[in-house]
Amino acid sequence: MFYREAGDFKTSYAADSQTFPIRLDRYGYYTTLAIAFLFVPLVISDYWANALLLPFLIWAIASLGLNILSGYCGQISLGTGGFMAVGAYSSYKLMTAFPDLNLFIVILLSGVITAAVGVLFGLPSLRIKGFYLAVATLAAQFFLVWLFNKVPWFYNYSASGQISVPTRSVFGYEVTGAEANSEAKYLFILVIVVLLAYIARNLTRGRIGRSWMAIRDMDIAAEIIGVNPLLTKLTAFAISSFYIGIAGALFFSVYLGAVEVGEAFGIQKSFLVQFMIIIGGLGSIFGSFIGAAFMVMMPVLLKNIMVGQLGWATDIAAHFELVIIGGLIILFLILEPHGLAQLWRLTKEKLRLWPFPH
Amino acid sequence: MKLSKLALVAAAAITAASPILAGELVFPSLSYRTGPYAANGTPVADGFADYFTLLNERDGGIGGVMTKVIECETGYSTEKGVECYESTKGEGSLVYMPLSTGITYQLIPKVTADDIPMLTTGYGRTSAANGAVFSNVFNFPANYWQGASVAVNHILDQENGDIKGKTIALLYHNSAYGKEPIRTLEALAEKHGFDLTLLPVDHPGQEQKSQWLQIRRERPDYVVMWGWGVMNQVAIQEAANIKFPMDKFIGIWWSGSENDVIPAGAAADGYKALTFHAVGTDFPVFEDIQKYVVDAGKAAGTGENVGTVLYNRGMYGAMLAAEAAKVAQKMHGVAEITPSQMRDGLENLVMNDEIAAAIGFGGFGPNFEVSCANHGGPGLAAVQQWDAANQKWNLITDFMAPDMDVIQPLIDEDSAAYAAENNITPRDCN
């Protein structure tokens, strides 16, 4: 009744092809943005920022990146953790080598460096497909982690092999380091997330995105109609790695502040992002966000219910957490193999017809 | 309607900050009873919790104020460690003891910014011993560089003081923890003229075939191990498989618990490890633990860990924290101390025979004094050897002093670098 296209007249091509053609969607989007930018910083606490919102936003960037590669271009990758490590170590080297460089530029350059590395490891995708490509990217994961552990130059020869972030500020507000306010950290990441999501959304419905999807759906057919597989696959790898590199740089510099590569960017991180996009929905921007939210917030929520409210022993709660999350993943995938984004899409379909479904 | 209600409940649960109860001394326990390091994390967490239970049951808390242990499961993961820190710091937490070098590195800047002390007994960042730079971090009674030095001293004793041309292999967990001793061992290698071979083992440490193949091929004279969790058990089993002489295989104090040697059975006999406190249950405090905690059914675990190496270590850490709280109460004249006052207590902590005997810990650990400049203690450590037939550890040396001539310059250098990197002006400690 309220949620419908009818009556929402478009008078220009721009209005006709906008991201949210339905008025209610559009208002919802603007409201979400307004709340995220104006209201949340007023009420945010250290706990909310460091335990929930920062990891959620950072993982959302990583799953946007992987979704571009796997969901839109159909290339399987298990190297996400390794590419995040490239982003993190790039930002560390840039920050320590050029102390006066603006943090936005550091993060951007880290993304660019990761994109270059991603293209390098994406080259085999021209010859090998499917599971074999997954194994090739798995090699990238292990090689990169080994490299950052082995070569002391990457961690500036520190005794422990850890990298620790120096303090940097943006517009006079400290964003990295221990003294940084949660508000500043949150807003800094939020700006980047919104920009990247906007770019991703518009890339995927433009020419490049369509060529990715053509390759995903049937690469031979796409080649016949004139899509260049070399360029398409490599742009997917480059842009995906760019996103993942930015996620890694933020993960290290703003969120954790000190990392060691094996622990922070191990193979389990590659799987985590993979789960996020599968649960959220392959080939969906909204799915990347909701998948990240599910995987980041659900464990904390369960822990707080079981330990905080019910007073269970911490080890039993931790084990149950794994059981429940595993069970939920299986349940969701049985009920809706296309992820939470598809559930949302179906809800919207139903809402359009409501209350007269016939 | 139903959905929004559910969301409300969820939002309430996710914040989950239980109200601060007045009149409690809060000691957070960032423990790990799950994951690849659970076998070693569980007894430490049990010992820590049981000692505070004992204080509550026997003495009515510390200085008349009850203690409360908030446990938070980290699984040895730094991200969960951050979540645990943020969720517990608002509850009046007095001192953090994260039992993980990775989480320690993470928390050093945070605790300093929040003015909460952190005590890392026998782990963490070694150069935090320089209290002038690391105002809120304490790593007494011993740290990794001192451990490395004591291990080399023990080897020197075995070889009658001359190890020129000998080879020592360091088998280490490839993480911040395992890499800690490298710098000291390199300096010591230069001083004593031995060759150092580095053998990293990746997390979690189940795969060590290639490292032991190398040891079998090169036959180093001694193997020193910095391992944790499942890595220890696998290493000792592998050493037994290649028939490496166990008395030339020396672990750091985190590689010397019953969990590590029992799986290898009789083959582990003679394996050595360092320790910075005594082993066994021949101390008066254990009678109280048995009476007030275990027999009363209030033990954190099943009670079967009492007296094991890691249980004792957890209890020892809890005792040091409790003693520091007493010092803080005396210094500031209040019973309900703040984290900042707790920091002062840690900095003025004195352990001597008289104090130790009064709380049933006589002879359990070495004597030491903490000061503004020295947050690290003397670093005395002894060597214990596993007796597989009787299933027990025996101390085979006295508590030995490390070679501070080598270590102190390294500590000064590393802490100065940290201070420069982070714009810290060292405090004036005179």
Index terms:
heterodimer; A: 358 residues; mainly alpha; two-stranded antiparallel sheet; two-stranded antiparallel ribbon; 15 helices; 72% helix; globular; B: 430 residues; alpha/beta; Rossmann fold; 2 domains; seven-stranded mixed β-sheet; 13 strands
Characterization of the model:
The complex is a heterodimer of chains A (358) and B (430). Helix content of chain A is 72%, strand content 2%. Chain A is an all-alpha fold. In chain A, strand 2 and strand 3 form a beta hairpin. Chain A starts with 12 loop residues before the first helix and ends in a 5-residue tail after the last helix. Chain B is α/β, with parallel strands linked by helices. Chain B folds into 2 domains: 11-139 and 283-370, Rossmann fold (3-Layer(aba) Sandwich), CATH 3.40.50; 144-275 and 381-409, 3-Layer(aba) Sandwich (Rossmann fold). Chain B is 43% helix and 14% strand. Chain B is built from 15 helices and 13 strands. Chain B has helices at residues 2-15, 38-59, 78-89, 101-114, 144-158, 176-179, 182-192, 209-218, 230-241, 258-261, 284-294, 309-332, 339-347, 353-358, 404-421; strands at 24-31, 66-73, 118-119, 137-138, 167-173, 195-201, 222-226, 249-251, 272-275, 350-351, 368-369, 382-387, 392-395. In chain B, the strands form 4 sheets. A 7-stranded mixed beta sheet of chain B has the order 6-5-7-8-9-12-13, with helices on both faces. Chain B has a two-stranded parallel ribbon with strand order 1-2. In chain B, strands 3-4 form a two-stranded parallel sheet. In chain B, helix 2 crosses helix 11 (284-294), helix 2 crosses helix 12 and helix 12 (309-332) packs across helix 13. Chain B is globular, with a radius of gyration of 22 Å. Residues 16-21 of chain B have low confidence and may be disordered. At the A-B interface, helix 3, strand 4, helix 11, helix 13 and helix 14 of A face helix 1, strand 2, helix 3 and helix 4 of B.
